[in-house]
Design a protein that fits this description.
The chain is α/β, with parallel strands linked by helices. The protein contains seven helices and eight strands; from the N terminus they run ααβαβαββαβααβββ.
């Protein structure tokens, strides 16, 4: 996982969510719509713990030491690890969450395979990401070299993400989206709508 930008700029990254509160609230609402309630869960690529702490996900995996410190301060139990090699036994978790993390994974297919491995037979994976097919997603792609965080990111369309999930063995998909304009110019939270391709923040839920 590409951690160097976050090792250096963890505080700035975390501050973005405070400065852009309406974008953060919209993203939380979209994830909450599809995230299972209860059971043993983990956020893979938990970052500073903004989502896990707000959504009640008790456990996180994060390779960046700087980011882990923030998550620990927010009450999330965080372990050092990578998405492609999760430090959990087979079939040990009820659900797994990934939020704007897949664009930094070294191998998305392997990360999905690892999530599949650690989930119980009835487990669920929820993947939230910047949708490359959306208007704002395309702008992120065009300008990613200008940012400290996304310079080395690899963005995906919702179709690509679903395709990788299907290859892994996941099924029973649900998809929603939000943020239909510049997240830094929002005057209030945006709605969460079914489908994908318009909102830059897409969420896919898939069952094992």
């Amino acid at each position: 996982m590409k951690t160097s930008p976050y090792d250096k700029h963890a505080a700035d990254y975390d501050e973005w969510f405070s400065k852009n509160r309406f974008a953060y609230e919209s993203e939380l609402a979209a994830v909450k719509k599809l995230l299972p309630t209860g059971g043993a869960g983990v956020e893979i690529g938990v970052g500073t713990g903004r989502f896990a702490s707000a959504l009640g996900v008790p456990l996180g995996v994060e390779p960046s030491e700087s980011m882990r410190k923030f998550a620990l301060e927010r009450g999330v139990k965080v372990v050092d690890g990578k998405a492609e090699k999760l430090p959990f036994p087979d079939a040990s978790l009820d659900y797994a969450l990934m939020v704007t993390a897949i664009c930094f994974f070294d191998d998305v297919r392997k990360a999905f395979q690892e999530a599949f491995r650690v989930l119980k037979a009835s487990g669920t994976l929820v993947v939230a990401f910047i949708d490359l097919a959306s208007p704002i997603g395309k702008k992120y792609e065009e300008r990613k070299k200008e940012t400290a965080y996304y310079a080395d990111a690899v963005f995906f369309t919702a179709e690509e993400v679903r395709g990788y999930l299907e290859e892994t063995g996941f099924w029973s998909f649900s998809v929603c989206q939000t943020i239909f304009g510049n997240p830094e110019e929002m005057k209030g939270p945006h709605p969460v709508r079914d489908g994908h391709g318009e909102g830059c923040f897409a969420v896919i839920r898939a069952d094992k």
